[in-house]
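Protein data sheet
==================
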Amino acid sequence: MKRLAILASGRGSNFQAILDSIKAGKIKAKVAVLFSNNPNAKALERAKKEGISTECIDSKPYKNKRTEYDLKVMEVLHKYEVDYVLLAGYMRILSPTFVNAYKNRILNIHPSLLPAFPGINAQKQAFDYGVKFTGCTVHFVNNVVDGGPIITQTVVPVYENDTVETLTDRILKEEHKLYPEVVRLLIEGRLKVVGREVIILPPKR
């Protein structure tokens, strides 16, 4: 059974959505560890309640030492023998050392229709820009921030009476549906990367 590491910095709602899909038998994998760079992350509490191993290395002392920090994270992941890394609200940019070690084995979910509005506060970026549609994107991680090959996206409308908060909530609900589905495809070996394109293969017989 494939072993997953989930990296989270905040409340861990996408982690919970993935875990719930695993518990429902939709994803045939195991969360080997929930890792956080934030000692106060709610995701750590969620994982402990679920009986999942947790690890935390506070990233604050490693400001401007991205590679040094990531090498320590990689040591942790190696200990848990993880096959895939899932970023779920992980508020750090991964170093090339980390990305290259797990090439095409790191997924991220981003709250916009990439390549529009990369980086932080994507929901506010979209809201302030006045777009009529935004959404969420699951992509492989490469060495460009939010620039890896796109796997799939969900479109979310922006309504006239929206606030940043209501838009954010609507996007998050779609994230909770989309991310577990992509993880399932990953575990089933149905994602093939060809250059910038990700081909979703049919189910294996």
In short: The mean pLDDT is 97. The beta strands are 2-7, 29-36, 54-56, 84-87, 106-110, 133-140, 150-157, 191-194, 197-200. The CA atoms of residues 5 and 48 lie 14 Å apart. The first helix runs from residue 13 to 23.
